[in-house]
Amino acid sequence: MKLTKEYIEALLISAIPIVGMPAGIYFMSDADIHSYEYLKKLSLLMGISLLSSILFSIELLKEYIVEILTSMLVASVSVIVYKILRSENISLYADEYSIVINMSLNINSVNIADTDINSLISTIIRKALRKVHNPYYREKLSTLNMCSSSPRVTAHEDKLIIRKRCGDTTLEIVITNNTKANIKFEIEY
């Protein structure tokens, strides 16, 4: 588990009784919400927050402990739902010649420096397949993973652009600051 500055701040905020859990979960927004590491961080954050809130409530607010814990859990679940809805930002539009799917992925858990381009593309495609639910688009996106064509890579000062074409589908991945991947997936018809 990687200890970042944001995660340490979220742990310190979570130690605040009652409001610490929802605030700490909100400040952990840089983590990939679908990863196993996020669940480990979330369980530690919730444990610290529940412990501090229970100790505070037992000392000062004994008769309201059930209401306090219930409101903490409801607020935390609503923050998690908000983050999931915010991370599911897929846009789809069609013109005369093609269907274009745009999405943005958080790739903090991927170490770009240690991976080659093909494994990076397959990792990003696996993450994108979690978001796409239409079977036709899922099939087209998964065929890009098995296509033998080599990707074209363009490196700029602040971003990396990877393009891969396989038959009638084109994938363009723009990675900025090693944390965000903007994906443009185009299907021609």
Entry summary:
The protein is of the alpha+beta class.
Binned, the helix content reads 40-55%
Rg measurement, Å: 21 Å
Any idea what the CATH architecture of the largest domain is? Answer: 2-Layer Sandwich
How many separate domains?
2
CATH topology (level 3) name of the largest domain = Double Stranded RNA Binding Domain
Q: Helices and strands: which structural class?
A: alpha+beta
Describe the largest sheet.
Answer: 6 strands, antiparallel
Which blocks of ≥5 consecutive residues have pLDDT under 50? Answer: none
Query: What's the number of extended β-strand segments?
Result: 6
Order of SSEs, N→C?
A: HHHHEEHHEEEE
The fraction of residues in strands falls at 15-25%
What is the residue-mean pLDDT, rounded to a whole number? 81
Terminal CA distance reads 44 Å
- Tally the helices: what do you get? 6
Envelope shape: elongated
Highest CATH level, the class of the largest domain: Alpha Beta
- Record the strand order, biggest sheet: 1-2-6-5-4-3
